């Protein structure tokens, strides 16, 4: 394992030492990816990290070939077939053996006790989340010990991306953008929102695997078009069977997942030629987005990018239509909590943070626009991981 | 609301009376769908059901137009924009007001305390699950009361489908089968497993919305082909970039979600003409699947369909390759726990249960086959909700 790859685990272990955590027990897919660089298929894998050394990855036999032994000691277990033990019997065996061999009795152990928003496992049709039974098991095993919520520590270390994650995020963004750009070439009156979104997802799913080493690739595209549909895109609004018309604004919100690493983009297009007003509004928004991005340097406040975007929109008379935040962390999840680029957000930007930069304006009767890129806080300022947009 | 629609909520309320539950508080998307026929987009909606009368559905403003007021009293709340309160502040206000107006202090209230496998909300890229913070809130509000795990009650009532659900499941299966059948016509050497799966998902996503009233449609297709790839399909195995060849077996595992109702199908195909041995094995498996389905009548045991399938395969000398269960419940989730068609499963089939019937055989060096349909336990025997297959 290269120094660059190992770095994120070492950073986490340094934090564990500070907090006196002797081990971490993780089941959320996003944390299993973080510790082992393996995106669980069924969501039942467990990663256990000691304060020093490699994690153990406990994984169903059928998934073993996707794991990476440079990252973790992989321990397969039978699951899902008639021959196999019950899942929780296996969980108990695994954790008991770790407690014994790492001598964890009476030590503080971190677990995921306070999540709600999570990244999916590869099998998006059926998430599996550690809830009641898992907490009961951990409570029984660590009764003599102290079970600590490791969520804050995990979010803190995940917020600073190493070169390895940054490269993965570039790949996810590249796969996403190729699909958007080739779909936009086919944009014409009569196609529905759902068809546009389905086409983007299709291209990502069919062409993503194999691209620069990507294996497991998924996408969710939601499209809102026209004066009404595009305005609804302030939050996730499902694509509808509305057929786009000449001069409609088209907003594409796209999550792309590549081996457990996420891209979060919003693209704007117009069917045919944009009107002068569409150009004017789009270009003011783009200016606001670029102004926000320019504030992404180490030591600047979480608030500064948001403030910069609002100032540009105020000068253009559009600030009252900008009703949401400017950005959020992105990487091991579609939305990560650090950093938060919003009015009143407390925090200081650090080199290695990656966030969405996505001011948006939603003008009743006219339409909604949002431009969203994924940007790294570099040592000397912003580094776009997606392709900066051009004025219309 | 028609009597048929209301029936499932009334059945649940009858069970609540038996268990002395004065109300249910649900957040899992599958239970919100069950109570209100609304598939949450972001996964943060709450459905609260009194022992008599309509549920209250607490839903983000942006999602309100998708809700159905015949099913529930819809209470929108602001979420996600700068103007909005924090989510948990709103949750507390909602539940406090319900406790006051329904006079729930000191009464037993059911909540989802022991799930792990869940159905996704529409936004599959980022599941939201009620975990630590939600349990803390419920614990604070119902401190004087008794908070009861309602999971068993919910699974029990969900296992018996009413005519309304059955119709929804037929639609989900129709959407799925149209996409599979049209994709299989395009099957030819050189196409990759990922491309086959992506094409099926594309057709479902682009053509599903609008079909017989369907609105929100998603799919996950995983394809395994050739002597190795098809054999791996015993569990979820991701599609790869393997290019199918003449005479390859192709196994398509497909989850289809339509407005919160699920279809779970496995289709088999051969690239070009099947070999005599492929035909022989396929047709023996089909005979086993049909034998299992014939056992789906009220009063029969959960074990009987599984036993029937194994007997047919034993006569064909193939039973040692049948390494998993015969079926599971399906409907409000990709996999529901009731009924379980497996060796040793305890339980009695009841009219209205819907399950997968999916014997499979996986022969090293030859390939794997599974035939999976969704079948209703009718008053007089099995009623296929998907299309019964034909011999090769």
Automatic annotation (TrEMBL), chains A, B:
Residues 167-378 form the Peptidase M24 domain. It holds the Pfam family Creatinase_N. Residues 8-115 form the Creatinase N-terminal domain. InterPro entries: Creatin/AminoP/Spt16_N, Creatinase/aminopeptidase-like, Creatinase_N, Pept_M24, Peptidase_M24B. It comes from the Bacteria. This is Peptidase M24. It comes from Thermanaerothrix daxensis.
């Amino acid at each position: 394992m290269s120094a660059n790859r190992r770095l994120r685990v070492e950073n986490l272990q340094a934090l564990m030492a500070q907090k006196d955590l002797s081990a971490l027990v993780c089941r959320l897919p996003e944390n299993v990816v973080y510790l082992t660089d393996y995106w669980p298929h069924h969501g039942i894998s467990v990663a256990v990290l000691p304060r020093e050394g490699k994690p153990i990855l406990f994984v169903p036999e059928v998934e073993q070939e996707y794991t990476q032994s440079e990252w973790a000691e992989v321990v397969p277990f039978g699951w899902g077939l008639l021959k196999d033990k019950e899942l929780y019997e296996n969980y108990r065996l695994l954790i008991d053996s770790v407690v014994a061999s790492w001598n964890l009795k009476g030590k503080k152990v971190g677990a995921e006790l306070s999540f709600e928003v999570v990244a999916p496992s590869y099998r998006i049709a059926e998430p599996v989340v550690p809830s009641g039974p898992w907490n009961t098991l951990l409570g029984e095993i660590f009764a003599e010990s102290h079970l600590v919520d490791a969520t804050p520590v995990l979010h803190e270390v995940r917020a600073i991306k190493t070169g390895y994650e940054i490269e993965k995020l570039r790949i996810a963004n590249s796969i996403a953008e190729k699909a958007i750009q080739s779909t936009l070439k086919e944009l014409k009156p009569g196609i529905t929102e759902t068809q546009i979104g389905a086409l983007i997802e299709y291209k990502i799913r069919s062409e993503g695997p194999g691209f620069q080493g990507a294996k497991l690739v998924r996408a969710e595209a939601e499209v809102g078009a026209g004066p009404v549909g595009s305005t609804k895109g302030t939050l996730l609004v499902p694509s509808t069977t509305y057929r786009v018309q000449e001069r409609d604004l088209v907003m594409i919100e796209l999550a792309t997942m590549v081996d457990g690493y996420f891209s979060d983009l919003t693209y704007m297009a117009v069917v045919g030629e944009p009107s002068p007003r569409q150009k004017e509004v789009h270009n003011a928004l783009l200016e606001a987005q670029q102004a926000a991005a320019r504030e992404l340097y180490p030591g600047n406040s979480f608030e500064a990018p948001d403030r910069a975007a609002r100032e540009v929109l105020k000068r253009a008379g559009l600030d009252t239509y900008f009703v949401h935040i400017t950005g959020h962390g992105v990487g091991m999840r579609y939305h990560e909590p650090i950093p938060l680029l919003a009015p009143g957000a407390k925090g200081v930007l650090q080199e290695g943070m990656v966030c969405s930069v996505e001011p948006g304006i939603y003008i009743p009767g006219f339409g909604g626009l949002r431009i969203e890129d994924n940007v790294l806080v570099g040592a000397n300022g912003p580094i776009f991981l997606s392709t900066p947009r051009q004025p219309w």
